[in-house]
């Protein structure tokens, strides 16, 4: 066990998943407290960093602070008004889902400040948030995935070929959002145009994917250069697909089966592919890898990787580790240790060409 450290939770964020992050952060703070001291930094929807009193994240309030993007300042959080030092965390823990948090931007700032942080680095975060890049890396690693096309801007010629090449239904997804925002399932050729409009409202790049009749499996991966996979779980959406409401609505009846009812060979294959997906994007610390199991064929396909998975105490990521024998507080302590380990390893690397 690492010494009792000051862990700065970064939560909220300039993202459509701000509210989800607040819920994750409340659980993470509780889970960290047995082993570490916690400071709470709310990133509000306008992007301000607000350092809060106490060890429990709140949805508003706090003192405006900044982190200087220079190694010499050692990760101090300073009051925006007068640069007075208000906190000096040992390690940062971004519990930020979606844009400006899970996408490498915050990780870039933490790299410039040369402070340890939990989770994937800049490149892995950015590539995993962009479904087009993620799929290209998965393809490069030989991972099975649904057929897809990428559109960069509206393109009548390419759009006219989609249904012929992919069949129906197709899923239309903005490349860079999460939580199913802007995603539609298209069942008739006439519905494609509106689905593309909806997706292009969120991004200049859109992924169109062959729609399959599937079970949805997820696995939690933990580690740096020698990652390990948990037992797989299954999500049973309460509606046609696992959309935003199905994920977060208060009345959602979406079920989680932990462990997933799978034959041992399939379970083992999910774990193997989970680790392979993690390594394909060069992730670090943690990630949840999501799969489709095609009902008709039993084929296993990788859907996506999330480098900052939902982290409430009832979220799939920690639940799968719990089922694998790692408690929530121990999982968090392990993540902090992995962040420190990665930082120490990188600090040992040469960054100059001198002698
Ligand atoms: N090719 C497909 N075939 C069948 N169902 C699909 C397909 N693509 C997506 N879906 C359904 O839509 C849901 C959301 O799609 P996806 O996981 O790609 O996006 P997302 O959840 O918004 O991304 P993130 O998990 O990063 O928030 C899936 O969980 C699944 O229910
Ligand atoms: Mg998803």
Descriptive account of the structure:
- This protein has ten helices and 17 strands.
- It is α+β, with helices and mostly antiparallel strands and 355 residues long.
- Strand 12 (214-223) and strand 13 (228-229) form a beta hairpin.
- Helix 1 crosses helix 10.
- The model has no long low-confidence stretch (mean pLDDT 94).
- The chain binds adenosine-5'-triphosphate and magnesium ion.
- Residues 146, 171, 173, 178-180, 183, 209-212, 214, 216, 237, 241-242, 290, 303-304, 306 line the site of adenosine-5'-triphosphate.
Helix-strand blueprint:
Elements (H helix, E strand, L loop, with lengths): L5 E7 L5 H15 L4 E7 L5 E4 L10 E5 L9 E3 L5 E3 L3 E5 L9 H8 L9 H8 L1 H10 L7 E5 L3 H11 L3 E5 L9 E3 L5 H9 L4 E6 L3 E10 L4 E2 L3 E4 L7 H5 L6 E3 L6 H17 L4 E10 L5 E7 L9 H8 L4 H20 L8
Parallel strand pairs: 1-2, 1-7
Antiparallel strand pairs: 2-3, 3-4, 4-5, 5-6, 8-11, 9-10, 9-11, 12-13, 12-14, 12-16, 14-15, 16-17
Helix pairs in contact: 1-10
The protein binds adenosine-5'-triphosphate and magnesium ion (MG).
